[in-house]
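USER: I would love a firmer grasp of how sequence relates to backbone shape in proteins. This is the protein in question:
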Amino acid sequence: MPSQSFHKEAGATLIEVLIAMVVLAIGLIGLAGLQATSIQSNHSAYYRSQATLLASDLADRMRANRTEALTNAYLTNFPTSSANNSVSGTAAEKDIAEWLNRLAVTLPDGTGKVEKDNALITISIRWNDTRGQIRASGDNNTHTQIFAYRTEI
């Protein structure tokens, strides 16, 4: 009579498969969170890049109209964000109005300030970065960002 031999079954049990699926799901959820944080960081960086370009644009306009820039014609102090500034008057008034309009259109609640100390100009741009800013939990600060650009004319 032939003897029957029992072979140990090889393969994964249902419990092992379920545990592997849970571990994979946790990893994918973590990856999705990193993706969301990356998108927020990129959005905030985009706003900072736009602020840099807009500040540089105004500095170039001031250098092109240096006479008026040295007589304080470009000074402004964070007016309310509006894309309806009247583009009329002197060259400096037109430059400021166009710049403020572009700030309001390009950046959320975007507005600007220009200060002068002799030939040193400080151009500050303020905007609301609620969508792009990454905060720690419990951090209740405002989402207002200010970018300062200093140059000589």
Q: What stands out?
A: The chain has a mean pLDDT of 88.
